[in-house]
Specification:
This protein has 1001 residues and is α+β, with helices and mostly antiparallel strands.
């Protein structure tokens, strides 16, 4: 632990005795000297008395007074935000005036006047306007808000008189290590953080609360760190350890909790809210998405103590690391948790772009806690972000391969065993390189052939569409085509042909279509049509395309379907060559036909990806077929097939991941006018807003550099945001209450110096270690306080922002379920694997579009921890939703605790809770034959200490009432157990699970 503050007289205490708003510089210096050099001997006392007379005398003279400096960030900026920026900010700049930027605030407005003239408030237009009584002149206008108070006008006037000094909002400035706080009670703090807490308490005349009891502290820290309650055995071992030293026992217990597998399961839930994790795609159909291996990766990362900077870089850009491992690639599923619309009739590009923008918003909320999403449509109304900044940042994510396809491409298989994962990845890379080499040699062989002859179709037909062929061989379609359209082209007899080429041409009629709406085919078939006999399909040997860039092997077009291009997303001129096994032989009188199918290539989007304009040609070079059948090439394809088969044998779920597009397939990123993707403005390159760049570092140029910037000293946000989030999880509220917004419209930190200290310690001495940071909090004196408070303290600080008492928060939704399972003895400690289906009330999934059913787990999966519960965006698990868990359709940085009757109805009547209560009753029955002993045992499972006799007696009275009722209604009793006694004890157990003692940590 770092050293606590030194015991010194706080200068604020002395200076606060002078109520004058003005103090001369000499007086201020003298007062500071008195505070710093205070001694207890008589000589120093006499010196202080003389000095006091010297300093306070001139203070009565206003003429000699030096006004205090107005703090722009805490006094003037909030004033502008409250009264001015609605019309003179980022969205609106009425009169060409904005109070977001100094250069704009000090520039000439459209009226010709200067709003702010440094040093001259009486000549500044802003002062004239805010003090005007003319309804046509006064600002703000009455319809826009109340006028400035006299105190606010004085602050504004004084700020201008002092030269209108400007500073960035506090969160845009890098954290600075504050001076060591000065405190009287040196024995209380266990860290510098404690000293900061104590310094504020002492300045307000408050003292910390006494320490929590051993039982209270153990329950609090165990639930906070693992999400599970401690057992009575844990408590007894802890109290035994305390006999050898309380501090040592606490440290040992915290270390044990941090090393528990339950730690990662508890803290992963916090991260999954931010990531908008779900086991489904979202939107209308909301089908299953196999992404749970990434959830397991997060749990392992927390348990293994992965540093947060590494955790960040892997998830945002693991695919761009040098020689990335399977785990690096799996980590990138972080941003594949975006929703994916599989509904027929939708525009894939619309929802691909929606996913890109969601990644921008999620990244900024998670790491920077700013409302950057506002900038999608306009400049930020309060913070220094221009609209182009948003799209520059979007460019980091605009060149990944995913494109809202039904198959969630790109996906990679991840076997369950770590060793198999690396083998699978190695084989995938080998197969990929081999495929690229085989295609590249084919391109070299084919691209310079001069013998290509155009094919002039004899006829052309399209199922459900219009197709025609020009005399020069150009084939065109018109109108709307079905997504699974099939072209049938009758062509002249071409005996001896060895290869056919399709050249896909840009469609001038759709020149403005987005690049994701390209053209591709899913199957190519060459058929001989003998007279009076069925068609004969000509065997094709190989396929070569101009370049490879995606998921489907082009060879699939001559097999079971797949796609000619990388996927249906490539506009511009493309070509592909289908090579025959041998020169074409056509019986006398037979015709020749080419069929082009598009079904698989379209992937369900309304726009389809059918060829709109193309040419066909052929070649009769026997060397082409010989090349395709060469022993070397055949052996290479056999090796490729072997690799693919081995990858399939290793198995594993196929998880969607991020993959960067090749340089030849880069997308252009352009600004959306008013956030409308169909109305485009200027083109932009990837970059971070200059207002968020600290120092002279060059702007990041790709996704990996951006990820590294996020956790570098050049980003003023991330360390503060993480420290604040971890603090909030442990204390119930953050130093900045608005965890999601560190901007101008968010809450100010209650202790800015403490937040800066924590941020610098987290990323500095602790090396971004979440575990080490949480350990320091868990062992702090602030955290160890009793949560009990006097009526006076509750009235003065109801939200405990001062931390004059220990934290007291309701359990999270996940903790409520997990605690019930743990206390009842049902909890399965099985880790990892596919999502599970614990009991839930009937009918929850009746509204699910797909018609899927909730198949309740019957084995130990029924009793797994909440983090493994199947998460569906359109029908969340009811207990979690009732207790404020988000639906996870977007990033959620803070759960807003509610208190509703539905919560009690849920925990008292939910079949899952009744099952837990029945199991808890069975545990209680084993504690003795008397109801008193049974109830005492059940209550102690929660409170750890021997329970109070009055609490036991209250539950005994409930037991007697229930028993009387069930003995009179045997059928009702049988619904809860084997006997009226068990049924009555089950209701008592249910009451125990619903006690305030149980639901609070």
């Amino acid at each position: 632990m770092d050293e606590p503050g030194q015991q010194m007289i706080h200068p604020v205490e002395f200076i606060s005795g002078c109520h004058s708003r003005y103090v001369t510089r000499m007086q201020r210096d003298c007062l500071l000297c008195m505070a710093l050099f205070s001694r207890h001997d008589a000589a120093w006392g006499l010196f202080r008395l003389v000095l006091l007379c010297f300093t306070l005398g001139p203070a009565l003279s206003a003429a000699e007074a030096v006004p205090r400096l107005v703090d722009f960030s805490t006094e003037v900026r909030p004033l502008f935000a409250k009264h001015c920026t609605a019309c003179h900010g980022g969205v609106k700049t009425a009169g060409k005036l904005s109070f977001l930027y100094r250069e704009k605030a000090l520039s000439k407005g459209s009226s010709g006047a200067f709003a702010v003239i440094p040093g001259e408030p009486d000549k500044s237009e802003v002062i004239r306007r805010v003090t005007s009584v003319d309804p046509d002149e006064v600002m703000p206008k009455p319809e826009h808000g109340p006028a400035l108070s006299q105190g606010e006008v004085d602050v504004l006037r004084q700020w201008i008189r002092q030269g209108a000094p400007w500073s960035d909002h506090w969160s845009f400035l890098p954290p600075v290590e504050p001076a060591r706080p000065l405190i009287r009670n040196k024995s209380w703090p266990k860290s510098t953080a404690d000293a900061h807490v104590l310094a504020q308490l002492e300045s307000l005349g408050l003292s910390p609360s006494p320490e929590a009891t051993a039982a209270e502290w153990l329950r609090r820290v165990t639930l906070d760190l693992t999400g599970l309650p401690p057992s009575v055995d844990d408590f007894e071992r802890f109290t035994e350890d305390c006999r050898s030293g309380f501090e040592t026992a606490r440290a040992s217990r915290v270390d044990r909790l941090l090393a528990s597998p339950a730690f990662g399961e508890r803290w992963a839930s916090v991260w999954l809210d931010l990531v908008r994790y779900s086991d489904t795609y979202g939107f209308e159909k909301d089908p299953f998405r196999e992404i749970w291996p990434w959830r397991d990766w997060v749990i392992r990362a927390f348990n293994e103590g992965m540093s947060f900077d590494d955790f960040t870089i892997r998830q945002l850009a693991g695919d761009l690391l040098p020689n990335p491992s399977a785990e690096d690639l799996l980590a990138t599923a972080f941003h594949r948790n975006t929703q994916n619309n599989t509904e027929g009739g939708t525009d894939d590009e619309e929802f691909r772009m929606a996913a890109v923008l969601d990644r921008v918003n999620t990244t900024w909320t998670t790491w920077n806690a700013t409302t950057f999403g506002c900038v999608q449509c306009h400049a930020h109304p309060y913070d220094p972000f221009e609209k182009a900044d948003y799209y520059r940042f979007a460019a980091f994510f605009n060149n990944t391969e995913d494109c809202d396809q039904n198959d969630d491409f790109p996906r990679k298989p991840f076997p369950n065993e770590a060793s198999s994962r690396e083998e699978s990845l190695r084989l995938q890379r080998q197969a990929g390189r081999l495929r690229e080499e085989l295609n590249a040699t084919g391109v070299v062989k084919l691209k310079d052939l001069k013998q290509w002859q155009p094919i002039l179709p004899l006829s052309a037909n399209a199922t459900g569409g219009v197709i025609k062929h020009e005399p020069d061989g150009l084939i065109r379609t018109s109108g709307t085509l079905p997504i699974d359209v099939v072209y049938t082209l009758e062509i002249p007899r071409i005996p001896g042909a060895t290869a056919f080429r399709i050249e896909i041409l840009p469609d001038s009629d759709e020149a403005g279509r987005p690049p994701e709406r390209g053209q591709a085919i899913s199957k190519f078939a060459l058929c001989i049509k003998p007279k009076g006999a069925s068609n004969q399909v000509v065997k094709l040997q190989d396929v070569v395309v101009d370049f490879l860039a995606g998921p489907r092997d082009p060879r699939n077009v001559i097999q079971a379907g797949g796609g000619l291009g990388s996927y249906p997303v490539m506009t511009g001129r493309r070509w592909g060559v289908m090579i025959l096994e041998k020169p074409l032989e056509i019986p006398e009188g037979a015709g020749l036909e080419i069929r082009l199918e598009h079904g698989i290539a379209s992937n369900g989007g309304v726009q389809g990806c059918a060829l709109r304009q193309f040419r066909l040609s052929y070649v009769k070079d026997p060397g082409v077929s010989e090349f395709a059948r060469s022993q070397q090439r055949m052996e290479a394809w056999a090796e490729h097939a072997r690799l693919k088969n081995r990858i399939k044998e290793l198995g594993g779920p196929e998880v969607p991941v991020l993959v960067e597009r090749s340089q030849s397939a880069r997308r252009e990123t352009r600004v959306f006018v008013r956030g409308n993707r169909l109305t485009l403005a200027e083109s932009v390159t990837a970059g971070v807003p200059k207002s968020a760049l600290v120092g002279s570092r060059s702007n990041p140029g790709d996704r990996l550099e951006m990820a590294r910037w996020l956790v570098s000293d050049q980003n003023p946000f991330a360390a503060r945001v993480l420290a604040n989030r971890l603090w909030a999880e442990m204390f119930g509220r953050g130093i900045v209450e608005t965890l999601e917004d560190f901007g101008t419209s968010g809450a100010r930190p209650t202790r800015p110096e403490l937040l800066d200290h924590l941020a610098l310690r987290l990323k500095g001495e602790l090396g971004w270690s979440v575990k080490a940071f949480l350990r320091e909090i868990a062992l702090s004196a602030s955290y160890a306080q009793s949560a009990r408070a006097s009526a006076g303290l509750l009235e003065r600080d109801p939200g405990n922002s001062l931390l004059a008492r220990g934290p007291r928060s309701r359990l999270t939704a996940e903790m409520i379920r997990d605690q019930g399972l743990a206390l009842s003895g049902l909890l399965s400690r099985k880790s990892f694997g596919p999502p599970v289906f614990p009991p839930q009330p009937e009918g929850i999934w009746n509204t699910v579009y797909s018609g899927e059913k909730w198949n309740t787990s019957t084995n130990e999966d029924r009793f797994r921890r909440a983090v493994y519960t199947y998460a569906r965006r359109t029908a969340g698990y009811p207990l979690f939703i009732t207790f404020d868990a988000p639906m996870r359709d977007v990033c959620s940085a803070r759960r807003m605790a509610s208190n509703t009757p539905l919560q009690a109805l849920n925990t008292l009547n939910d079949p899952a809770f009744l099952e837990m209560a029945a199991a808890l009753a069975r545990r209680m029955e084993k504690a003795g034959t008397l109801p008193h002993d049974q109830i005492r045992f059940g209550l102690r499972l929660v409170v750890l200490d021997p329970p109070k006799i009055e609490d036991v007696q209250s539950l005994e009275a409930l037991y007697r009432d229930c028993l009387k009722n069930y003995r009179a209604n045997a059928d009702l009793a049988r619904q809860l157990g084997e006997s009226p006694e068990h049924a009555a004890l089950t209701l008592v157990a249910n009451a125990i699970l619903n006690l305030d003692l149980s639901l609070i940590r």
